[in-house]
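Tutorial, part two.
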Amino acid sequence: MDWKRLVQFALLGSGDLEQYAILLVRVSLGLFFAISGANKLFVAANTQTMYETLVEAKVPLPNLMTYFVSSVEFVGGSLLTVGFLSCPACLALLVDMLVAILTTKLSAMPTGLSPFNWLDDFLYLPEVLYGIFFIWLICSGPGKFSVDYWLAGMLLR
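Running the prediction step on this input gives:
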């Protein structure tokens, strides 16, 4: 066994595997948001639930925003899944998550918590984790297994 390689892997990871990690995160997030957006757009009960959530959060123009937010999730998630226009899709979905956090999630958090407990609850929110992943994908790019990578190779020769 090569101990030096094992220690190097334990401390630094493997750059050879990075593209597979990017692919896994990009496709998983993309599928999640494409399916979530489709359910909000095309399933009447879910559309109604989304509308009621926006009304309760006092979001302006809740009827329009129901379809806008659901479309952003569906289109952005679909684009992210195949890796086409990944950075703009991540940016749109990141804004979607920030708005969700600011309009519905923060107000639902318990009051009177210590700063550490508040941070613990905040970081436990799925929207925060999704936002962190979107920031990572914007910074790392969509990876080699994406339409964007192929398109950049074609256009930037």
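The helical segments are 3-12, 18-42, 44-56, 62-82, 86-105, 115-124, 126-140, 147-155. In part three we will examine how such features are distributed along the chain.
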